[in-house]
Write a structure and sequence with these properties.
The chain is an alpha+beta fold and 248 residues long. It is built from five helices and eleven strands, in the order βααβββββαβααββββ. Strands 1, 2, 3, 4, 5, 6, 7, 8, 9, 10 and 11 form an eleven-stranded antiparallel β-sheet that branches. β3 and β4 form a beta hairpin. The longest helix has 19 residues.
Length: 248
């Protein structure tokens, strides 16, 4: 039985969502998941746009994606998402992505905090948001995205990135969805054509603004696991751990 806070939304995989293989890219799948969540929180009255006059904004802290199959160009997919619990300063949201036959394509667990956008510090949840989070389904949820402690002692791959106007959101910083893409940018086309992510766990630690010089570093732990660090002037802004499988 669906909980009243369960939100379902159907999308079509369009041309700008796919990569060279005509399959939805990892960044596109993550974006569609978050687009569904944005529509739900707007309906609830707690979107970043609606909270901005109150000096508040949502910040993604962790995301753990598990990918089983990538949809193709023209496919209809359905995203199921819902707030899945609250714990002190953290609130959680789960995502499930299905094909038209209700086969599970991907799932993700996310951890969020509410930020005072003027002080740039964590804010307690106001009473109206607490009232919604208290009724969020908690009995059945995905395992919480675990905290990453990633260190890289050498960079096997590295790419320099300078974000510009079109990566920014209305908070005047880079939208965090670009972090996932940037972590994958250093790989060669050949590697990405022959490998598929099965898990991608990302921790976001800081903000990025226009014209800052970003270094995306990758270290192979083994043939199937990569560690990722995004940094600016030595300050780590995000870390990641990816598990890969070879495409057949």
């Amino acid at each position: 039985m669906l909980h009243k806070l369960h939100h379902r939304q159907v999308f079509e995989i369009r041309g700008f969502d796919v990569d060279l293989t005509m399959q939805a890219s990892i960044p596109a799948m993550i974006r569609l998941m978050h687009d569904a969540a944005i529509d739900q929180v707007m309906a609830l009255g707690f979107s970043a746009l609606q909270l901005e006059p109150r000096g508040l904004g949502w910040v993604l802290a962790n995301q753990h994606l598990q990918l089983f199959k990538q949809p193709h160009l023209g496919d209809q997919i359905e995203v199921l998402t819902f707030p899945s619990g609250v714990d002190k300063i953290f609130t959680y949201r789960d995502y499930y992505l299905y094909d038209c036959n209700q086969n599970l394509l991907a799932q993700a667990s996310t951890t969020w905090i509410l930020m005072d956008i003027n002080r740039r510090k964590t804010s307690p949840f106001p009473e109206d948001i607490q009232a919604v989070l208290k009724v969020a389904p908690t009995a059945k949820h995905l395992p919480r995205a675990h905290q990453l402690r990633i260190q890289i002692d050498r960079a096997d791959l590295e790419k320099k990135i300078i974000p510009g106007y079109f990566e920014l959101d209305f908070n005047r910083h880079v939208n965090n969805q670009y972090f996932f893409r940037w972590m994958l940018e250093p790989f060669s086309i050949g590697f990405l054509l022959n490998h598929q992510i099965s898990e991608f766990n990302v921790k976001i630690k800081g903000e990025v603004f226009a014209d800052e010089k970003i270094s995306s570093q990758v270290q192979f732990s083994d043939q199937a696991t990569t560690k990722h660090i995004l940094s600016k002037e030595g300050e780590i802004v995000a870390t990641g751990l990816a598990i890969w499988i070879k495409k057949t």
